[in-house]
């Protein structure tokens, strides 16, 4: 699968470099351009046709909100994640209404940046893998888009979750909770708890394999 093409719109050179370094550390994404003004960004979008824009609110010529309106009015086929210091409720609400996929408030850690991009990649995949969607497909897309941005349930943490999902990606084939526990060095009951949560939000698939006797064995895969 081709990398998701990203344009970064940021007028602060230091912040721009940080965002670029974060992007380069995130698998499945490639930088196709950068812009430090709204006008430059608009022309870069039309010229380079990125899949995703990381957009700052405060630009030297027009605001990120004005650029967002222009992109939507001209129906340019691009998705947008806001990365900005603007945190007033009115602005966040307006950008949510316009369809911002996510909203990162500066300063933020790499883990939050990575989470936003990985959530976007998963949601994008749900829409682009099929030419026609059923109601269940659409329901799953919206459910996961919002559920992935919520805090994890009590008793689960992001670090352990990432270790488990990273190992599933690395193995890249169905495994049992016991096999995954051996690969991660974690307790089987802990791994099963995370896998069952991921299955409940449709982030992993469960396949049942029946033996000659007893209960079927659960195999988990992304």
UniProtKB/TrEMBL annotation:
It holds the Pfam family HTH_64. The keyword DNA-binding applies. Residues 5-121 form the Response regulatory domain. It comes from Ureibacillus terrenus. Keywords: Activator, Cytoplasm, DNA-binding, Phosphoprotein, Transcription, Transcription regulation, Two-component regulatory system. The modification 4-aspartylphosphate is found at residue 56. Gene3D superfamilies: 3.40.50.2300. Its main location: cytoplasm. This is Transcriptional regulatory protein. Transmembrane segments: none annotated. One of its GO terms (molecular function) is DNA-binding transcription factor activity. SMART domains: REC (SM00448). One of its GO terms (cellular component) is cytoplasm. It is found in: Cytoplasm. InterPro entries: 2C-system_Tx_regulators (IPR051271), CheY-like_superfamily (IPR011006), DpiA-like_HTH (IPR048714), Sig_transdc_resp-reg_cit/mal (IPR024187), Sig_transdc_resp-reg_receiver (IPR001789), WH_DNA-bd_sf (IPR036390). It comes from the Bacteria.
